[in-house]
Amino acid sequence: xxxxxxxxxxxxxxxxxxxxxxxxxxxxxxxxxxxxxxxxxxxxxxxxxxxxxxxxxxxxxxxxxxxxxxxxxxxxxxxxxxxxxxxxxxxxxxxxxxxxxxxxxxxxxxxxxxxxxxxxxxxxxxxxxxxxxxxxxxxxxxxxxxxxxxxxxxxxxxxxxxxxxxxxxxxxxxxxxxxxxxxxxxxxxxxxxx
Length: 194
Hints:
single chain; 194 residues; alpha/beta; Maf protein; seven-stranded mixed β-sheet; 6 helices; 27% strand
């Protein structure tokens, strides 16, 4: 079995991948994550996912490299990580009472053959009407400033929602595991057998 590299230093993505029981290394890809003018959310996350995997290809020439990237779309506007309380407050205020769509790009690159598979997984989150007090308390409790959409669905963020609609709840945390397992099986990696 080829060694697996996760092209991410995200503690959330690493925790998800660890659940599979497969050995892997995590490495930071050094790429420019700026969007291109008029780039769609789907095009952005698939481009960045592939770019992250490619950024580590020379360093890991006989490996399977996983690249992933995520943005959310609120009111037809692409939103990334807030990085601050003020930005997070604005994001959650805009999400209040609305449907927010998460676009998570996933790339699996086999650096030995150059073969890659890149796809985008969508997940819809329907937010309750949130008061300013609820938003403020939530942000102070979880500080989700490094999370696209300004919440952690695996934590107290679940209290912000009316309902969730998607194939794989892991997608919201940043790594679509069901899709990843399909890709890995195509490369002979199956945690139920290996």
